[in-house]
Design goal:
The structure holds two protein chains of two kinds. Helices cover 87% and strands 0% of the residues of chain A. Chain A is an all-alpha fold. Chain B is α/β, with parallel strands linked by helices. The chains are: A mainly alpha, B alpha/beta. At the A-B interface, helix 1, helix 4 and helix 10 of A face helix 2 and helix 3 of B.
Chain lengths: 247, 234
């Protein structure tokens, strides 16, 4: 059942994501070509277009995740979703895994666009830059692994927090002003998270601070957000499994 | 076991409002049962509990001997009182969803119903008229060989022609061994459909009886009995 739910999760989004990815890749290629023809105005135009499209891709990814975890679960489509013979765990897993997949693919597509842009714009130095980057990763496997795990955990936390936000909103508020109450709830959850993280992270309030001041403290950051993610998923499970009320 | 649905001491409140009050109900297999009552009498709440859309309630509810769970959703085919389609969905996407999720989905019956309803097959669902969307949702529900069909206000707010089509289709395409629970507050024209009726008034079961016996006993039509029972209902 999980595989079937995941299949239909992909079907629900791929028609929107694929054209955007294709647009980013196409514009990246056109931009790199515009550098080759050495036209400053063309290069500037395509560069700004490319960065706009990369921005749109990331914004669209977050918008899709919000719709997938909110309206598509607790809105009218919930009538279909929650009368499907699937367990709460299967429904939640399909949502989380596919939204993580889109997030990772969007990041990879954006990274591809940025890499090719650098390759074209600074081609005299690009091999040096790339070589240095690869050397850096090879020489520092622990640091690379740490950053990847931290990024992955933070993405998991963001999705878990949004899922919990919508589940809680649906449970406590049935009125017409859901967007307003949702925004207020988002800030309230953010404040609670800030208090909790400040207890565990102390001075290292963000990934950036941890990265600069003490690399090993990234694991404290990762561990804290992993625990918060777990808490969000457990609470979301309890709300959906025992307190669900589709309006 | 002759009952498809067994409800014991069911209570449900929304804040201070009591939506269902100590409901006890056994629905027999193979019957067509009318769940009747005015707006706000608790029909949709009861149906949402049976379909698993409401998890917070007190009491004991079983379908085909099982507590409400994914296993009961496998034997219940449900037509809600509103459209649940997503904007990206094409008819084929929805058909594929039902084929994948429900082992009792019959694609041939679905194609037959689509042909009968004359719904264009390649359109995005959101581009169909509201009437066609309602017919599509009905086709999905009736294309399953479920043990229990639940229809929540299937004829509410539709024109008389569509109302007739909906009722005829339900009767002609249902799994004849299955139980049908049909909720409505529009009593006219449905009298001949039901084997049994359940009257819900302010969350309480006022009456659950074989319809022929009820009509014989009171010597009145279902509409007249309904008006009598709900005369003071708010």
């Amino acid at each position: 059942m999980l595989a079937k739910l995941m299949k239909h999760e992909i079907l629900s989004s791929y028609r929107k994501f694929l054209p955007i990815y294709a647009g980013v890749i196409l514009l990246t290629l056109i931009t790199s070509f515009s550098f080759n023809i050495q036209s400053i105005s063309a290069a500037a135009t395509f560069t700004s277009l490319l960065f706009t499209l990369v921005g749109i891709t990331m914004l669209f990814t977050f918008y899709t995740i919000i719709i997938n975890l909110g309206q598509r679960v607790f809105g009218k489509p919930g009538y279909l979703l929650f009368t499907t013979p699937a367990s709460t765990i299967e429904i939640m897993l399909s949502k989380v895994l596919i939204n993580m997949m889109w997030l990772i693919v969007s990041i990879l597509v954006s990274m591809f666009a940025a890499s090719l842009f650098i390759l074209s714009a600074f081609r005299e130095n690009v091999f040096t830059i790339l070589g240095q980057l690869i050397d850096l990763v090879i020489q520092n496997p622990y640091e690379s692994y740490t950053i990847i795990v931290a990024g992955f955990t933070y993405a998991l936390y963001m999705i878990g927090m949004l899922f919990f936000l919508f589940a809680l909103l649906n449970m406590i508020y049935k009125g017409e002003k859901k967007i307003l109450i949702g925004i207020l709830l988002y800030f309230a959850i953010g404040q609670v998270v800030n208090v909790i993280t400040s207890i565990f992270l102390g001075a290292y309030m963000s990934f950036g601070t941890a990265f600069i001041e003490d690399f090993n403290s990234i694991w404290v950051f990762t561990g804290t957000f992993f625990v918060l993610s777990a808490a969000f998923y457990v609470l979301t499970y309890i709300i959906i499994d025992r307190k669900l009320e589709i309006q | 076991m002759d009952n498809i649905v067994s409800i014991k001491n069911l209570n449900k409140s929304y804040g201070q409002t009591r939506a269902l009050v100590n409901v006890n109900l056994d629905l027999t297999k193979g019957k067509i049962i009318g769940l009747l009552g005015p707006n706000g009498s608790g029909k949709t709440t009861l149906i949402k509990i049976l379909t698993g859309l409401l998890q917070q309630f007190e009491g004991n509810v079983t379908i085909d001997g099982m507590k409400i769970s994914p296993a009961t959703k496998n034997v219940v085919s449900y037509l809600p009182d509103q459209l649940y389609f997503e904007s990206w969905m094409k008819i084929d996407d929805l058909k594929q969803y039902f084929e994948d999720m429900y082992s009792d989905f019959n694609p041939l019956r679905f194609n037959e119903l689509m042909y009968q309803f004359q719904i264009p097959s390649r359109d995005l669902i959101r581009k169909l008229s509201k009437g066609n969307q309602e017919k599509l949702q009905l086709a999905m529900v009736l294309s399953r060989d479920a043990k229990l069909y639940i229809f929540d206000e299937p004829i509410g707010g539709v024109d008389p022609a569509l109302r007739e089509i909906i009722l005829d289709t339900i009767m002609n395409y249902r799994n004849t061994e299955a139980t049908i629970l049909l909720s409505t507050h529009q009593i006219y024209d449905v009298e001949e459909l039901f084997d049994e009726v359940v009257f819900l008034k302010q969350g309480e079961v006022m009456l659950h009886q074989n319809l022929d016996e009820l009509i014989m006993e009171r010597n009145k039509s279902l509409l007249e009995i309904f008006k009598e029972v709900f005369r003071y209902a708010r």
